[in-house]
Amino acid sequence: xxxxxxxxxxxxxxxxxxxxxxxxxxxxxxxxxxxxxxxxxxxxxxxxxxxxxxxxxxxxxxxxxxxxxxxx
Length: 72
What we know:
Largest sheet: 2 strands, antiparallel
Order of helices and strands: EEEEHH
Radius of gyration: 21 Å
Mean pLDDT: 84
Low-confidence stretches: none
Helix content: 10-25%
């Protein structure tokens, strides 16, 4: 009884959930889990769980900082 064993070089992206070849991806910048190359092209460098741990950036700029525009 020979079983048909096939190796799979596939990993699940911890950002989008797609399965991609392990060689076509990068590690998460914080924890090192797999992030696919498509997410990386889109600027995603963190997995979902690491993004959830980071604080949200403010939606509006800080108005206490005065911008010094030159006079024309």
